[in-house]
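Predict structure. Chain length: 591.
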Amino acid sequence: MRGLGASVKDAWRLARPYFASSEEKWSARALLAIIIALNLALVGMDVVLNFWNGAFYNSLQHRDWHAFVQLLFFYYHTPGGMFLPGFCGVAAVYILVAVYRTFLRQWLQIRWRRWMTRGFVDAWLADRAYYRISLTGDPQGVGTDNPDQRIADDVASFVADTLALGLDLLSNVVSLASFVGILWTLSGAITVFGLGIPGYMVWVALLYAGVGTWLTHLVGRPLTALNFRQQRFEADFRFSLARLRENTEGVALYGGEAEENAGLATRFSAVVGNWWAIMQRTKALNALVSGYSQVAVVFPIIVAAPRYFAGKIALGGLTRTASAFGQVQGAMSWFVGAYASLAVWRAEVERLAAFDRAVTEARASAGQGVALAADGERMRLEDVTLKLPDGAVLLDHASVEFRPGQSVVITGRSGSGKSTLFRALAGIWPFGSGRVALPAGRCLFLPQRPYLPQGSLRRAVTYPAAPEAIAEAVVAEALSAVGLGALGSRLDTVEPWALRLSGGEQQRLAIARALVNRPDWLFLDEATTSLDPEAEAELYRLLRERLPATTLVSVAHRETVAALHERRLRVERPGQGAGHLVEPVAEAAAE
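Prediction complete.
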């Protein structure tokens, strides 16, 4: 785990853009300035209450009823000429300021979180960084595990904790500056071994806070790493539950409940084990902090008592001294009281900063590997070499051209690299070299397992187009054409369609998606494998009839699918060596 200095730098790098360069920077600065002003006002009222406290207890000691009533309800002029407002007025203002300080801080918090969340989501999706991260994530998950939790939870916690800790630190610094002079004056001097020490209670507060801070850091230091791991273990367990929910049918068909239960138990045991370690460390830290705080209640009175019993200060002076000592010691001991919160905050900063670095690196490397370029009316692979993430060559120096209006099938044995070639044609495979020239017009890629977004059935059919961009009648007719006419009346029904529809129905829906989007270039990767040969042939004929001008490129291994295309290419890969894309001589000659 990185040091506190590195965490502060990372926090500054994460927080600065919102207040320095965002479109909300002026309103954000204004809100922050008002919140700081309200915090300072509360500190100022604490100073007033310190003087009020001395006058009030002196009125009790001297049995001065008039001063007592004036100090409670109206205002009072001390014998020294100081004007003190009544407690009721101060309390009313204090409550009002405290309420609006919290309200405005929450307002700033949600605005800042909204901006940061939008920024992280945009960066994560830009240049397909999310895809590259999923392929290259390190085994330890530093910066790459559970991006959903980092964006949803860590951003919210970072914003809330940064505001809370930052404003609290500022208030304590101002309190220290405000009360240290008061304590210096009230404490007077003490003689130790013949040496006069002025403002001795300030030095006592400094020594007390220093010892407490050192002990707290010594005991609580492991909490940052423990909290970092806890957030990861919690996210892993939650992701496992979500994955089980999304694959209920598969688990049920396999009868894999016992295995799933064991996996969930293992992940949750990591949550419990790390939580137990946090409990043990927090127990020791709380014992220290609680003892430190309890001693601080009577410590200043004990230290100031000799001057009180010597008659050098009145009861009000003693209470003022104790109050001022508490403020100074509390401000100096901010690190002690906030240590547990700081440990959680540092874990949040580290997770967000690591994720931000991972996204930045993924986006920076987007131009590496296979180059993409718009080039005319044809799609071409020019000397393309595809590699696996570990560097092994999958396809070596492939060059081929696809002409508009053709139907082309790419075949090969399982594991030969057909699907990787499909990803390269889509421009998402980051490992390799060469150039893919992309044609003008719209491209649509249909993978073997269709992606069905959350929401209505209409949205699932029109994706990636917006649901309102395509007429309802067109969507319903496309569903009917692919054999899903019974669903035409449920277009606006919101259900988990990925669970409601079988594999074959999902692939039929994907073909309907192609019909409504009408791409100029359509690529299919084993997109009909869940269907029988007759249904497969029927859907391919439907595509040729409805999309006669569309170039059709299919990745398949079934001969029945290959027979439905005009041109064939084959990926030949001997063993684990590099594969080559070849075109059978007879078919090439026929062309």
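Summary: The CA atoms of residues 445 and 523 lie 5 Å apart.
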